[in-house]
Every structure is written in C-alpha cells, then in structure tokens.
Amino acid sequence: MDNCNFRRTYDQAFLYAMGETNRSGQSKKRALMFADFYDVVPVAITDEDGNEIDVIMSPSHIEQFQTMLAKPTQLTLRRPVQDLSPENIFRTCDTVNSIGEFGAISQYLTKRHYTELNKDMIEILNQDWEIKPRQRFVVARALIGSVIINTENHHGLLILALEVYGRDPNIDSHAEQRSSTGSTRQSTSVPSLGHNDFEICTMHQTEGKNISMKLILGTHPFNALVTASARIDNLVDQPECGPNTVNFVVPPHSHSHLKYKLYLDSQSWSDSLTLGEKTNLDSIYTHSRLMQLRQLKTRFHELDTYSSSRSTLFHGYLQQPMTVFTYGKGTTSINSGALSSRLLATLATSVMRDGESARLAKNSVEKLLSEFTKETKAKLVFLRILQLFDDNDNIPIIGNSDLNSLAEELATLLAPYISTANKKSVIPSLADHLKSY
Q: Which domain of life is it from (predicted)?
C-alpha cells in the first residue's frame, strides 16, 4: 500500500494493480489492453492516512465489494483446486496461440497449426548440403512461417521471409564469415556444443557507419537470416522488413536453446518433406524464380548468387521484401533504381536459364540505357558496361569479374530505393494482409 498525496489517474491505478508501474512502456501498453478485453476497471481503496491500494474487478462487482468492505472480512486468495504453483498454472503461455491470442494477427494464427521443433526435425535440418544439394531448398521451405517464442517474457515472432546461406564457401560464396567483434557479441551462428545442433541468435554486424542486428537461425550446414517478421504478442508493432530485426533480440550467451523455442508451421514442414523426395530439384517453388533470390550486393559473377535460397510466407509482390532483382519488376516508375534492378534481373534470368554458359546481350543493355531521362550515377555505370562488349554482341556473366564490379555498383545504388519501398509499401501491405484473416 502506498501513501499518496494525490489520487492516481485511471491508467496509473490500473498499472499499479497489475504490478506494471515500473515496467517498460511496451509492457504497460499490453497491460492496459487487458482492461479492454476483459471489461475490468481499477478500484482505489484508501484509509484515513491517505494510503491507497488499487485492485481490478468487473464494474458489476463494485457495489457488492463496497458492502463487504463495510464489514470486517478476511481476504481469501483463490487458487485452483489442485493448488498448482504459478509455474504450472500458466504452462500454456508458451504456445503460439496463447501468446498471440490478443495480438494484431491472432486470426491468422488460429488458422495455422504449429509443431515444436524436436530432435528428429533438427537432424533433418542438419543434413549435409554437399551430399544432398537439394537441402538448400528443403530447409528454406521448412522454416518459413515458423514462430520463435521467448519463454521468459512470452514474446513471439512470426517469420515472414528468410534467406538461407550454406556454411561451406565452396558451396555458397556468400557463406557467413566469423565475426571478430569480441566476447560481448555473438560471433557465429554455428550451434555450440550441447546446444541440440540448432541455434537462435542475434548477430551485430558493422556495415559502414551502421551496426545491423540480424536475427539468425543456425545449424551446422547452414544459417537462415530472417528478413521479414511480425510480433504476435501485441497490437502495436508493425512488421519488420529488411536484414535488421530489432523487435525481437536474442542477447549473446543467453542459453537460447533453453530460453527460446521454435514452432514450425506444420504445412511448411510437410511441404518441405515432399520437396525433399523430388529429384532434379532446382528451386523452392516452381513459380516466381526471381523472388527466390537473396538480397545480395556482391558476387554477381558467381553461380550460387542465383540459387533459389529465399522463402517467403506470402507471394504477392508487396507482401515480401524487395531485392535488387525484384524492385524493377513491380514499379511503373522509370528511375535509376528501377532500370538498375531490371539489368540485374536480366543477369539472373539468363543464369537461371543457361547456368554457367549464361551471357548478357548488348542490345539488352542498350535498351535499358535508352530509358534513362537524366544523367545519373547509374547511367554512367550502364555506359561503362557497354564498353565491356567491344565488338561483341554478348559477354559471359559467370566468371566475369569486370561485369561483376559494375553490377555491384548498381546494387549499392539500389539500396535506398529498396529501403524506401520496404518501409512505404511492403510493411503496410504485410500488416494489412496479416489482419485480413
């Protein structure tokens, strides 16, 4: 009981009764939602010395409560008949639907079924990519739509898009490089000894002046970077889109194998098992091959850059993160970003069709160049690409380091266009779609 020289406001009284007075702003917002969902109000009880304590009850019980206070009444704490400990009373708090029950996307979650990741599943996810090359496609399909749950604070995160990267640089030239940032940060997503061969972690990476926070699922043969996600436990946060995940952070050395659980979307897991039985598999989905390419800015002369390694929960153009390959496909704007993206998409389409023998046609570059209406940095790069042809009608793509250097420049110039499109178009579209169920 507190001694107050002033009466608490409605919200202050409610937060006091819930024990939320000194909690974070986000936690307070969730507590206040409780009142709306259950139609309860805070009731202040004060004594002659000004001491105040607040309790929560239904408005229909207030009059009866006042009558009881007028008489000496012993308070009784009601507990379940089994007299269970709080730990057992709330055992269901770690399920996807119980955590997401009052969140903005609860209707979507109720239509899905989830299975907690187990040892048998982890064993399948850890199969060697060198022995089974199709595992790249299988694991990307298996993990999409999964939900990560923090069992301590009961936060949950739905994975809307992810990119998989092989550990072996000979298999994937974009393989994760071990960080040297020191012991205070996660330096690798490779599972630690005894961590059940599966890791959930946040890795901090320095990119120029910026420090990125990347949420990663790690196994021994690969790691999966979460590139779009949505919190399931509240009504406030918008989905996140891009390589950074700040709405759900896994601290280093947090024993993630104990504190965090992964629930797989049962349909995604079933689809991945079916995918693994197919022969001559070369993609995650049979449609929209460009959307299955990772958001990369380097090594456009390497074959694995064009491997299907990205999986998205929804396949609408504005329901998945933009990439250097897809940005130009869905915009009617004729700007440097769109034209740069279309050139990179031309490279990708050629490689996916012809493999190592893929070539870039000179007339394809000339056609895109003719659409520039301004003198821009991207246009200058296009002019330098044309110089690579000399008297030839086409040039090779794979192994062409000169072409790669110029393609990397275009990818860098594309970055602000992609970031803006994700914020202004993709995130609102994802939020609306998730709430439409």
A: Eukaryota
Selection from 336, 348, 356 nearest residue 288 by Cα: 348
The residues facing 41 across adjacent strands are: 57
On whether the CB atoms of residues 431 and 422 are closer than 8 A, the answer is no
Helix (H/G/I), strand (E/B), else coil: 364: helix
Q: Which of 349, 317, 305, 322 is nearest to 414 (CA)?
A: 322
Asked whether the beta carbons of 211 and 201 are under 8 A apart, the reply is no
CA atoms within 13 A on the CB side of 410: 32
- DSSP element (H, E) containing 328: none
Token digits of residue 19: 């024990």
Please tell me the distance from the alpha carbon of residue 295 to that of residue 321, in angstroms, as a whole number: 9
- 8-state DSSP, 197: T
Q: What pLDDT is attached to residue 231? A: 96
Report residue 152 as tokens.
């301590």
* Cβ pair 210, 217 in contact under 8 A: no
Q: What are phi and psi of 126, to 5 degrees?
A: -95, 10
pLDDT mean by block of 10 residues, the chain; 437 residues: 64 81 70 65 80 82 76 57 40 72 92 96 96 96 98 94 97 80 61 79 82 93 98 88 94 75 97 93 94 98 98 96 94 90 98 98 98 96 98 98 99 97 96 95
- What pLDDT score was predicted for residue 193? 65
Predicted pLDDT of residue 57: 83
CA dist list (Å): 15 to 22, 58, 93:
9, 16, 21
Q: Is 4 helix (H, G, I), strand (E, B) or coil?
A: coil
| Location of structure tokens 């330096």 | 187
Question: Beta strand 2-3 with 222-231: parallel, antiparallel or unpaired?
Answer: unpaired
Residues in the chain: 437
Burial (CB count <10 Å: 0-12, 13-18, 19+), residue 323: buried
168 contacts: CB under 8 Å, gap ≥ 6: 129, 130, 175, 221
Collapsing DSSP to helix, strand or coil, 44 comes out as: strand
pLDDT on residue 192: 75
153: nearest Cα among 39, 217, 244, 231: 231
DSSP secondary-structure letter at 356? G
Q: What is the dihedral of CA 347, 207, 261, 117, to 10 degrees?
A: 30
Strand segments (E) across 314-378: 359-361
